[in-house]
Every structure is written in structure tokens, then in C-alpha cells.
Amino acid sequence: MRFIKRNLIVAFTALVLNAIWEYAVCAYFYNGDVVFNMGELMVEATLGDIGVTLLFLNMIILLRKEKSWTFITYDYVNLSAYGIAAAFYFESKALNISRWAYSEVMPLIGQSGIGLLPVLQFAILIPLAIFIEHLIHVEVN
Question: pLDDT tens track of the chain, all 141 residues?
Fold first, then answer.
């Protein structure tokens, strides 16, 4: 039961955090002249963000092979690192197939052509969603 409850709380938290981020960032930092279905893409991206967050949550739990469920600082750092790698993958893939394009105000990471904000999104929001679940769990118990 704890497993299901934890996944539901993390999914809801990731939904809220990523929906806010997607809607705040997309309007200013993605090129609306190139992307005509921005609303649909934001919904798909938010659902994908939830899926990636749940994947990483459960991956860390499986890798730790512990029943304690308590994440430590090392786990949150790993989640950020996994988030950065995932963001680079998803952004480069989407840019290569012209799924979306950045506006001229999107800060880029060096010569990579990858936007800084999507990378920060995964590096910050994935561990934050899981940390918020931890705070909720501590409060309830």
C-alpha cells in the first residue's frame, strides 16, 4: 500500500510542479511561430515529466535494495544527475525531429544547442517532487 500511495503522491506533485513550469516557460522560451500545437505539446510534456519522475523514483528504490524508503542526499543528487541526462536526451531528440524550437531568448548550454531551462526543470523538479512526498509522509506519520 505504501508503494502505491507514494507513487500517487509523487505523480500528483510532479503534475502540479511540471504543469506550472511548462506553462510558465513555454510561452516565453519556445518559438510559437514554428510550433502550432503548443497547448497539446505542453500537456504531453507534462505527462512525460510525470512518467520520468515515477521511473526515476522507482529506479532508485530498486537500485538501493532497501525497504526503508527514505531517500538520502545522495539519492537526490543522483535524481538531479539522471534528470539532466534525461533532459539532454529528450530535448536533443525533440529538436532534431523539429517537434519544437526555442525562441531567441532561451538560454542555451554552451554549444550544445540545448536550452538551459528544460535541463534545470528536470534537475530541480524531479528531486523536489520526491522530497515533497517525503515531507507529506513525515507529516502524516
Answer: 778 899 999 999 999 999 999 888 877 677 766 666 777 888 888 999 999 999 999 998 888 777 666 788 998 999 999 999 999 999 999 999 888 888 889 999 999 999 999 999 999 999 999 999 989 876 665
The answer to whether 129 and 53 are in contact (CB under 8 A) is yes
Residue type, 66: E
Do 10 and 133 contact (CB within 8 A), yes or no? yes
52 vs 46: CA distance, rounded Å: 10
Smallest CA-to-CA distance from 126 within 29, 72, 50, 46 is with 50
Distances in Å between the alpha carbon of 1 and those of 4, 5, 6, 7, 110? 5, 6, 8, 10, 45
Query: Given 3-state DSSP classes, what are the helix, strand and coil percentages for the chain, each rounded to the nearest 5?
Result: 75, 5, 25
